[in-house]
Design a protein that fits this description.
The complex is a heterodimer of chains A (about 250) and B (about 250). Chain A is an all-alpha fold and about 250 residues long. Chain A contains eleven helices and two strands; from the N terminus they run E-H-H-H-H-H-H-H-H-H-E-H-H. In chain B, the strands form two sheets. A five-stranded mixed beta sheet of chain B has the order 2-1-10-5-6. Classes of the chains: A mainly alpha (about 250), B alpha+beta (about 250).
Chain lengths: ~250, ~250
């Protein structure tokens, strides 16, 4: 989406507004490792989806052809896809977010049942229940596609019936995951504030207050004790120790 | 899936990030579903395909063909765009070890005696389209007219896609269920299916049935074809008896 992916430096702690294009306080949402994982998985996923669409649909494969090459690109993108997901575990922020995605609170179930879930009255945490569902379903589907794809690619691994079963599973799970990814992209397209979080690492505090109110509050509380700005950064417009949550600059939780 | 929150105090200020590990349960559930699918998918797919095949074959929109049922044709081409040929510029060259080398047009082929077969089409990658109508000239008839010399042992097929080749032994080529197909599914073979003229070798996997057929050369030995050199497929591609597969034979 945003081609200038990585800002020259990840926004440094204590200088929350240094890279903000517009005025207003920002919150740190994703660290550099997380954004790198997301970027790599996105590229590999889109490669897999594109090559799959070419191989599967006659109206695409007819003009494009080159089946051996397309298949090779698909298979190796697929094998590579879990690598960044696993490498990300070196980042503490990534591990912490995985834990948040894993846990469903009563609020999440309420959010899922609500018809007005996006109007902000349900104060969701860093991730809403839809994001949690999406990540769990995607994770499971990726694992299934990896295993079934491996069985298809190395025909000597298993018996024939399982190979046919793998093709069947691979087709249906790919269709489901493809729809999930398209839905994910659709929500991202509709929400520039959220996209900003994944492309720069920070979000506007006002955006967080609107979409992830509980996280915004929690971030301010967490950051309060740890603030002193580093030497090279001067807080510009904020009082980091301000005790009024929701209107101030927040620091990395 | 059970409601989460069994170990959570909802009044806790941080309740948003606590709760049951539902994410992990979903991941494991999806994985279990996938594993079950791998083990039982073949049976499930067979039933689905059998049930839906009549609908798919008759669907004018082709939309049901997008469902992954493993019972529709998938388009395989080994090159970039394949030129389109029709009655005005299509030719089939018959040569090699024969007494009467010849070049036939589409009209020439249409005037020869036609044979119709209704047989499944089985791909070595697993999909199978049941009961496809094929009409065309028996390869045996063409060979008889051309007159193979005594050294003739095999046939080498060429394609006007510029890259694909296939082979049969002379004995296999003379079978009555080996057609130079002009019609498929009751209509002239479309470009995407290898038209205007393609091979249909009923008892063998699909890769033996050359699409966009342009030449039939009689040789003194079997020359392994494209997938047999690029993909390690068996040269004798009998359905159910080659490539490590046990599909039901077509016959």
């Amino acid at each position: 989406m945003n081609p200038s992916v990585e800002p020259a430096a990840a926004p440094s702690i204590g200088a929350p507004t240094a890279t903000a294009p517009s005025t207003g306080a920002t919150l740190i949402r994703f660290d550099r490792a997380e954004r790198l994982v997301h970027r790599s998985v996105a590229i590999l996923m889109i490669t897999c989806m594109t090559t799959a669409a070419i191989m599967y649909n006659g109206f695409l494969s007819a003009p494009i052809g080159h089946r051996r090459f397309v298949k090779l690109v698909h298979v190796y993108s697929g094998f590579a896809l879990p690598v960044p997901i696993i490498l990300g575990l070196v980042s503490a922020a990534y591990r912490a977010d995985l834990r948040r995605l894993n846990r469903f609170s009563p609020t999440d179930w309420r959010w899922l049942r609500s018809r007005t879930r996006r109007n902000g009255t349900i104060r969701v945490g860093k991730f809403n229940a839809g994001q949690k569902l999406n990540s769990a379903l995607s994770g499971g589907a990726i694992a299934v596609l990896l295993v079934s794809g491996t069985i298809m690619y190395f025909p000597d691994l298993t018996r024939l019936a399982w190979r046919t079963g793998s093709t069947f599973v691979h087709d249906w799970f790919a269709l489901a995951l493809g729809l999930l990814v398209l839905g994910h992209i659709r929500f991202a397209v509709a929400d520039p504030g959220s996209r900003r979080g994944m492309s720069t690492g920070t979000v506007m505090a006002a955006w967080a207050e609107q979409h992830h109110a509980a996280w915004a509050d929690e971030s301010s509380i967490d950051s309060a004790p740890v603030d002193p700005a580093p030497l090279d950064a001067a807080p510009l417009d904020a009082a980091p120790l301000d005790s009024d949550p929701g209107s101030t600059v927040m620091i990395d939780p | 899936m059970s409601r989460g929150g069994d170990d959570v105090n909802a009044d806790d200020a941080n309740a948003h990030e606590d709760g049951a590990p539902v994410g992990r349960r979903i991941v494991l559930g999806v994985a279990a579903l996938g594993a079950a699918g791998i083990v039982t998918g073949r049976t499930v797919q067979d039933h689905l395909a059998r049930w839906l095949a009549p609908i798919q074959n008759a669907d004018p929109t082709g939309l049901t063909g997008l469902l992954p049922l493993g019972a529709t044709f998938r388009y395989y081409s080994v090159t970039g765009s394949v030129p389109t040929k029709d009655a005005s510029d299509y030719t089939l060259e018959i040569g090699g070890l024969v007494d009467h080398p010849t070049t036939l047009t589409l009209a020439d082929l249409q005037q020869m005696p036609q044979t119709t077969l209704v047989r499944d089409f089985q791909c070595v990658t697993g999909w199978r389209v049941p009961e496809v109508h094929w009409t065309g000239v028996r390869l045996a008839d063409l060979l008889e007219t051309a007159g193979p010399t005594p050294e003739a042992k095999a046939i080498s097929f060429g394609s006007f896609d510029g890259a694909y080749t296939e082979s049969l032994t002379l004995e296999q080529a003379l079978r009555s269920d080996v057609l130079v197909a002009l019609q498929m599914l009751g209509k002239p073979v479309t470009h995407d299916h290898g038209g205007p003229v393609r091979m249909y070798v009923a008892p063998m996997y699909g890769y033996k049935s050359t699409k966009w057929l342009s030449s039939i050369e009689v040789t003194d030995q079997v020359v392994p074809g494209y997938w047999e050199t690029q993909g390690n497929y068996d040269v004798d591609g009998w359905i159910g008896e080659s490539n490590g597969r046990d599909d039901e034979p077509v016959g």
